[in-house]
Design a protein that fits this description.
The chain has 181 residues and is an alpha+beta fold. Helices cover 26% and strands 24% of the residues.
Amino acid sequence: MVVFSPMSYRFTVKDYHRMSEADVFDPDDRVELFDGRVYGMAPIGSRHAGCVKRLVSLFGPGVGQRAVLSVQDPMYLDDLSEPQPDFALLRPRSDFYGGEHPRPSDVLLAVEVAETTIEYDLHDKTPRYLGAGIPEVWVVDVVREVVHVATTAVTRTFSRGETVAPGAFPDLVLEVAAILG
């Protein structure tokens, strides 16, 4: 009798792109590659969508030409990961990353907005982002109404009534209430 053990397969970013080109995923599928696994992403609820729009509105005028605003776009984290953070501030580049996805050294701030995915965003994504070299990660918890700000040195949680500023732009002080709506 032959006994088979279950195997798992880790996809590379190249595999992931080939799968997309071969129409393995429906064009409407919300998926991302993280640590070699393809994850179906949670549907975007209205609180989540509103928060992302507020981030664009708050950061846009404050950073001006000092950064490129990226909304739910892929970033090349490593050969096994191409996540799509909800929002990111990227180093300015003349091609606006039209030639390739940003890499960790291009990312000044990555933001995940959590309505149903707080554990995944805080305990899986955040450490991987930081470990890849992204200097700062925010996780906006729209359910508990807090903003978790993580760097390699510390993670702090900010609530309504407090302010927060990205390390790359300490002059851009934002009210947590304005982020949460």
